[in-house]
Design brief:
The chain has 290 residues and is α/β, with parallel strands linked by helices. It folds into two domains: 146 residues, no CATH class; 128 residues, Rossmann fold, CATH 3.40.50.
């Protein structure tokens, strides 16, 4: 962590997947890790706005839950040490969404949050390298500690839960509802994480005995729990399982299994990717009786 005097922030231009922007020193030197690997440095522009005082550089603010955790919260370990200063983000969106505000508050981040929408000079910028990245897949120990926010006693009811994607618009397996009907018979509760407050998501993932589902960012809720008690079963919903999921499990020292099956592509056009599992009974066989 360092203080950059008279830093210049250039807003993000583009989409979450390809963009320009970033942070420059007062003499025009670009700070490489102010952007993600898929971002490109913007051209240095003369500031049209000026912020007096001290601010924290938050990085890129995204709406997707997984990218929010891995990338928009990547400097949380610094934010925890600098609670009173506003946070500056660059974003592909022109505003901060209510769900983003809710997520920040849910994990105890009550700093004022601002979006940089024009080339802006900042009198004093608290700057740190990201504590987590997607490429390469990485989370520092300091970042892991800063994410651990919710504290729950071990669940004595031994819940078994399936983290469902069946009500999501994108990234689904067509016959997941049929799988869920069989899992209910086997004693599983079907959980739709996007419908629950973050604290309840974290409680279920952190304290249940068995946590299963198709791969997705819903598993990253475990990063917010101070303790994780159960065993995880992850099944692929596309060609494979992203390396971020087993990496997160390993960083939190939890027990898990990955199971990869051959799936049939129904729609491969991103982001409306949809697959079909020809033999759904394989999942039931693995989870039944646990």
């Amino acid at each position: 962590m360092k203080i950059i005097k008279n830093a210049i922030l250039i807003p993000l231009e583009g989409t979450m997947d390809s963009f320009t922007g970033g942070v420059f020193t007062f003499d025009g030197q670009f700070i490489e890790d102010s952007l993600l690997c898929r971002g490109r440095p913007a051209e240095l522009q003369k500031p049209v706005e000026h912020l007096s005082g001290t601010y924290i550089y938050g990085g890129c603010l995204f709406g997707h839950f997984g990218h929010f955790i891995w990338e928009s919260l990547s400097r949380l370990y610094t934010i925890r040490q600098c609670k009173n200063y506003p946070i500056l983000f660059i974003s592909p969106n022109d505003r901060i969404f209510n769900v983003q505000k809710m997520l920040f508050k849910s994990i105890g981040v009550n700093n004022e949050i601002l979006l940089v929408k024009a080339s802006t000079s900042v009198e004093s910028l608290i700057y740190s390298s990201p504590g987590s990245t997607l490429n390469p897949v990485f989370i520092s120990d300091k970042q892991i500690d800063s994410l651990k926010y919710f504290d729950f006693a071990e669940n004595t009811s031994k819940e078994k839960i399936w983290l469902s994607r069946s009500k999501l618009e994108y990234g689904k397996v067509t016959n997941e509802p049929a799988i869920e009907k069989e899992l209910i018979k086997a004693g599983y509760d079907i959980i739709h994480p996007q419908t629950l407050p973050l604290r309840e998501q974290v409680r279920l993932v952190g304290t249940s005995d068995i946590i299963a589902g198709f791969d997705g960012s819903q598993f990253f809720s475990l990063l917010f729990s101070k303790e994780v008690y159960g065993k995880f079963f992850v099944f692929n919903r596309r060609r494979g399982i992203p390396s971020t999921i087993p990496y997160a499990f390993q960083k939190r020292n939890v027990t898990f299994e990955q199971h990869i099956f051959d799936l049939e592509s129904v729609n491969s056009e991103w982001p409306i990717t949809t697959y079909h599992l020809p033999e759904p009974t394989k999942i039931i066989e693995i989870l039944n009786g646990l």
